[in-house]
């Protein structure tokens, strides 16, 4: 009887162990196969994270790109500024700032001088200096038109030809390429230069030069006597 009791107890223990194992396996397998559901709040949080992450990275890349673009633009502007600064005029044009017709011609050239190839020098300016203009004195410059083209002093119609070429209108004086026409044009201009003061209602060149000399001497005398000069 004791042997039968032990055998029965052994069978019962084995059955219990099998049942426990089966329940454990079924629970684990069911949990592994069980679908995962997200709540609406967790789904919103996930989408928010997804939205935030690309936004942060894209804004960073945009900031980096815009910064690099800004730096490249500023460097390009600096290079352009340097290039403009390095541009030097080709022609220094000396003109009589008290001659209305001369000033009208100069204003026209200034309006076309977009490339800055012409530097305009007013002979009538009290601060005019011959040392800064290839040694051309006021008297010499007033006698006829003068220009300094790339270091070379020029006079007459050739100055106008260079000036108009610098502003893109060289065809106006294309006739100067013919020697006979250039000679005739210079003769006509010489007559105009000689009498242009009287034609424009101004004193003669001699009187203008005398008046300028007196102004210069008065200034020198006043400076030497600290303003007590009576000349």
From TrEMBL:
<dbReference type="InterPro" id="IPR044691">
    <property type="entry name" value="DCC1_Trx"/>
</dbReference>
<dbReference type="InterPro" id="IPR007263">
    <property type="entry name" value="DCC1-like"/>
</dbReference>
<dbReference type="GO" id="GO:0015035">
    <property type="term" value="F:protein-disulfide reductase activity"/>
</dbReference>
<protein>
    <recommendedName>
        <fullName>Thiol-disulfide oxidoreductase DCC</fullName>
    </recommendedName>
</protein>
<dbReference type="Pfam" id="PF04134">
    <property type="entry name" value="DCC1-like"/>
</dbReference>
């Amino acid at each position: 009887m004791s042997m039968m009791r032990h055998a029965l107890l052994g069978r019962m223990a084995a059955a219990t162990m099998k049942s426990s194992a089966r329940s454990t396996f079924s629970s684990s397998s069911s949990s592994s196969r069980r679908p995962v559901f997200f709540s609406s709040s967790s789904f919103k949080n996930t989408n928010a994270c997804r939205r935030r992450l690309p936004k942060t990275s894209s804004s960073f890349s945009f900031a980096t790109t815009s910064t690099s673009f800004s730096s490249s633009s500023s460097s390009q502007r600096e290079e352009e500024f340097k290039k403009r600064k390095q541009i030097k005029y080709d022609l220094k044009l000396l003109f009589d700032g008290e001659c209305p017709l001369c000033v009208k011609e100069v204003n026209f050239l200034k309006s076309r001088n977009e490339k800055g190839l012409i530097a305009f020098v007013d002979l009538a300016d009290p601060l005019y200096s011959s040392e800064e203009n290839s040694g051309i004195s006021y008297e010499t410059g007033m006698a006829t038109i003068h220009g300094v083209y790339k270091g070379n002093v020029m006079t007459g119609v050739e100055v106008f030809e260079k000036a108009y070429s610098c502003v893109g209108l060289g065809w106006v004086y294309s006739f100067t390429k013919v020697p006979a026409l250039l000679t005739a044009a210079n003769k006509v201009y010489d007559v105009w230069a000689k009498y242009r003061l009287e034609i424009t209602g101004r004193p003669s060149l001699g009187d203008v030069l005398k008046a300028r000399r007196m102004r210069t001497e008065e200034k020198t005398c006043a400076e030497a006597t600290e303003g007590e000069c009576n000349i």
